Amino acid sequence: MAEKVTLIEVESTDQKMGKWEKLAVLAINECPKIKKEREKKILFDRFGIGKKAKTLHAIGQDYSVTRERIRQIVNNAVKKIKKNCKSDEAQKAIEKIDAYVQKSGGYVSSEQLFAKFNCDETKEQNAIKFIASLSENLVAVKESSTMKQGWSLSKVKIAKIKSIAKEAASILKTEKKTMRAKDISAAIKEDSVLTESVMYGAKALMKTDDGKWGLTTWPHVNPKSIKDKSVYILRRHTKPIHYAELTNRISDISTKKVTQQSVHNELIKNEEFVLVGRGIYALSEWGYAPGVVEEVIVQVLEEAGEPLHKNIIIERVLEKRIVKTSTVVLNLQKPRFKRVDKAVYTLN
């Protein structure tokens, strides 16, 4: 049989508990209708308060009862606390959560809730979800194939939330570009605050660093491969970068550390990237020219169609490659070029 959890035991570990965990404990222990220690223990186990949350099946095994029986005990206990919560601190916390959901248009994902109330640790996240479940005004939005787990005001139907998420994704698919939330909400004729809150909870949508929204399937919004992440980082960096530094930045946004060799290989074999200096790469779309400096000078003179002053040649080469000025000057001494006037060169 599972051990008992008494109020004394909880208070003895008070210093180790977070703010929301303490509130959850108070809500349970100060409810006069929750008298049985077994009932308290089941709530602690199910919601993961001060520990890892357990499944209904696992708790049922602890007490030799069915998962359905555990579900009934949990639901009944939550109802009791909703109607008989004697903790003023817990009541104030519930009101704060209600106010935040109201301000957000009537829906928030659990991720938004965690971010708003600084719940970084799992135990605090478990606790704030328990506190939210005690609200008379909120309905839990279960995680589905399209939506993350969240909370809505009872007057905001879950079907409405899913419809907004679906329409927002449809608009982005049609436009084929990232868009601001206010433009998406205008296109689907929905409240802008609620629309953006729903988009945070939609699995198909993601907010970019510039504040716009896109589809998670778009590599420039949600890069997954080393190649896509390289493009993503270079666009954010807005200038060429050494592959060693690029490797570090890719590792920062990846679940696994990547090697310099794997990054370098992608940069070499894909046309999206161009070598513009020793180990330094740029995006081809920026107009940088591949090849050795000599070839770049040839390209500059061919594009000009006339002799150019040395300073102009240097300036135009540096627009295409990252090299030292002296390297350009030395290359102008090669047989493919000839000086036709003081510091003026053309193709030989």
How many helices? The count is: 17
Instruction: Give the strand order of the largest sheet, numbering strands 1, 2, ... along the chain.
Output: 1-3-2
What is the overall shape? elongated
Indicate the proportion of strand residues.
5-15%
Number of domains: 4
Rg is: 30 Å
Secondary-structure element order, N to C: HHHHHHEHHEEHHHEEHEHHEEHEHHEE
Which structural class should the secondary elements be placed in? Answer: mainly alpha
DSSP E strands, number: 11
- List low-pLDDT spans: 1-14
What's the end-to-end separation, in Å? 94 Å
How much helical structure, as a percent, in the residues?
A: 40-55%
Largest sheet: 3 strands, antiparallel
- What is the arithmetic mean of pLDDT? 91
Provide structural commentary.
By secondary structure, this protein is mostly helical. It folds into four domains: 7-91, Arc Repressor Mutant, subunit A, CATH 1.10.10; 104-214, no CATH class; 226-286, Orthogonal Bundle (Arc Repressor Mutant, subunit A), CATH 1.10.10; 293-347, Orthogonal Bundle (Arc Repressor Mutant, subunit A), CATH 1.10.10. The protein is built from 17 helices and eleven strands. It has helices at residues 7-12, 19-29, 37-47, 56-63, 67-84, 88-103, 110-116, 122-133, 158-175, 181-188, 192-201, 226-237, 243-252, 260-269, 293-304, 310-320, 325-331, and strands at 107-109, 138-141, 150-153, 205-207, 213-215, 241-242, 273-277, 280-283, 308-309, 337-341, 344-347. The strands form four sheets. It has a three-stranded antiparallel sheet. Strand 2 and strand 3 (150-153) form a beta hairpin.
